[in-house]
Write a structure and sequence with these properties.
Bound molecules: guanosine-5'-diphosphate, magnesium ion
Helix content: 40-55%
Number of helices: 13
CATH class of the largest domain: Alpha Beta
Order of helices and strands: HHHHHHEHEHEHEHEHEHEEH
Strand order of the largest sheet: 3-2-4-1-5-6-7-8
Radius of gyration: 21 Å
Structural class: alpha/beta
């Protein structure tokens, strides 16, 4: 089945499809523009699908930050598929590239890797946000709080980034903006102690989801590890299966640097999912594929802008649609 057809079939209503498509299209407009221009140009330059065509395609993908080993795998798959389908004309390759990009993200099965957040049905869910300064942890917490609240959940925030007074105030502002309470201590206090208070408050107020902010100092890896380990111990002691998610927030505009941050954090703590922010700010959105393929940690949420509604569950189809929307023909 064609890529576009499959994508449309995922939705129960046309309105929903248009809403999700629209958000991804807008959020990925920089990447799409650069990507579709290059692909169209490539297809115009080559009539025949040959080795040089694939070499140029390889370069385009690498320049979109897809990641070298992911690109190699993709090109190999494409070459096989093109042979199998006996495709000669370069314009037909666009379709195959979009299909293979989804496949490479999702793996061999038809895909439904569980990217939804592990939210408990009838007990408190604790989600810990980690990541270096400036990647968008606090903003993502604000956006997610808004989303959960609009689903009817009781949400509480904890200001575990006690390193700077500004960070506590920023979370507090988000709390006011979306109408949820924030548990906070003063600047310089122990993050584990704030989070402990957050859990206590969440329990006594019958909260559904507790979102915990943390500081992200990477200068000292040992400190970071110790701090995260302590925070996790405190959470585990209060709730045996918690934290239910440890979300590593990465800034898509930092490209390959995001990958190396991810490796460091994965050593420091058990990361259950990735939030990739600022996809709207980069032309190199291909980093999503590199992260999935090279780290083996699912991207669960993507930040597609600064507005409170600019947070979406990651969807490989939507992502590839956002990249190819201009160049795939409707049938
Ligand atoms: N364009 C864009 N900006 C974002 C996104 N997420 C966060 N930001 C911005 O990134 C900056 C740093 O975010 P912040 O939440 O303070 O990062 P933190 O230090 O990790 O808590 C802020 O100016 C946010 O508005 C996003 O998805 N898109
Ligand atoms: Mg912050």
């Amino acid at each position: 089945m064609s890529f576009l057809k499959k994508w449309k079939e995922k939705f129960t209503s046309k309105e929903k499809q248009e809403e999700v498509s629209g958000k991804y299209k807008e959020g990925l407009s920089k990447t799409r523009k650069s990507f579709s221009e290059k692909i169209n140009d490539l297809v115009a330059r080559y009539r025949k699908v040959d080795e040089e065509f694939f070499e140029d395609l390889e370069e385009i993908l690498i320049s979109a930050d897809v990641g070298v080993s992911t690109v190699m795998e993709l090109i190999e798959e494409l070459e096989m598929e093109v042979k199998r389908r006996n495709i000669k004309d370069t314009s037909e390759v666009k379709q195959v590239i979009s299909e293979k990009l989804v496949e490479i993200y999702q793996g061999d099965d038809d895909g439904d890797e569980n990217i939804s957040l592990n939210i408990q049905a009838d007990e408190l869910t604790v989600i810990l946000f980690v990541g270096v300064n400036g990647v968008g942890k606090t903003t993502t917490i604000g956006k997610l709080a808004h989303q959960l609240k609009s689903e009817g959940k009781e949400v509480l925030l904890t200001a575990g980034d006690t390193f700077r007074a500004g960070a506590i105030e920023q979370l507090n502002e988000w709390g006011k903006r979306v109408g949820v309470d924030v548990i906070k201590h003063s600047e310089g206090s122990d993050p584990a102690a704030v989070i402990y208070d957050g859990i206590r408050a969440a329990k006594s107020r019958n909260v559904d989801v507790l979102l915990c902010d943390t500081a992200g100092r990477l200068q000292n890896k040992v400190n970071l590890m110790n701090e995260l380990a302590k925070v996790k111990r405190v959470i585990e002691r209060e709730i045996p299966n918690a934290p239910h998610e440890v979300l590593l927030v990465l800034d898509a505009t930092t490209g390959q640097n995001a990958l190396s941050q991810a490796k460091t954090f994965a050593q420091a703590t058990d990361v259950s999912g990735i939030v990739l922010t600022k996809l709207d700010g980069t032309a190199k959105g291909g980093i999503v594929l590199a992260i999935r393929n090279e780290l083996g940690i699912p991207v669960k949420l993507v930040g597609l802008g600064e507005k409170v509604t600019d947070l979406e569950p990651f969807d490989a189809h939507a992502f590839v649609y956002g990249l190819f929307a201009d160049i795939l023909e409707e049938e």
